[in-house]
Amino acid sequence: SLPIVAVVGRPNVGKSTFVNRIAHADDAIVHEMRGVTRDRSYHNADWRGVHFTLIDTGGIEMGDDDAFQSSIRDQAFMAADEADVILFMVDGKTGITADDEEVARVLRKVDTPVFLLVNKMDNPSKMEENWEFYSLGLGDPRSISSTHGHGTGDLLDEVVAIL
Ligand code: GDP
Ligand code: MG
Known about the structure:
Rossmann fold, seven-stranded mixed beta sheet, globular, GTPase Der
């Protein structure tokens, strides 16, 4: 079976936009399970001849803060269990939130390799301005723009190199 790359992160950071840019069109297999936390869609993707399965993790349940944070943790643990590489996406426009920190806390402990993606860095001349995200403790932040495509090729080069 193909190597698995899972995209995780809080709602609205741009996970689905990224996946739809990278994945082959109209081939998603959506696994709808009880509780939206567990929803994920599986996509065929390849980069430079390396084929892999790309997982878009679905909505995280909104509710009281405790339920929300625990479903965020579940999502990260499930991805770590299932994936060969995790892409943890944050929003470069809004900066770090408490929910980002919660996911990071989980991902710092897993053995699965994690890339920290700073999305919505739409201005190519300001791609380097992502220093604040070093504080998440997950190595070098990789700036990308999922809508424009900046940075996604370099990132995928690094990802497929370790698949
Ligand atoms: P998800 O909830 O993490 O799957 O996020 P979506 O992919 O649904 O995107 C949430 C919103 O962010 C949408 O309005 C997207 O158009 C927007 N978005 C996604 N990627 C980018 C980006 O690179 N730049 C900007 N400016 N907006 C983006
Ligand atoms: Mg989505």
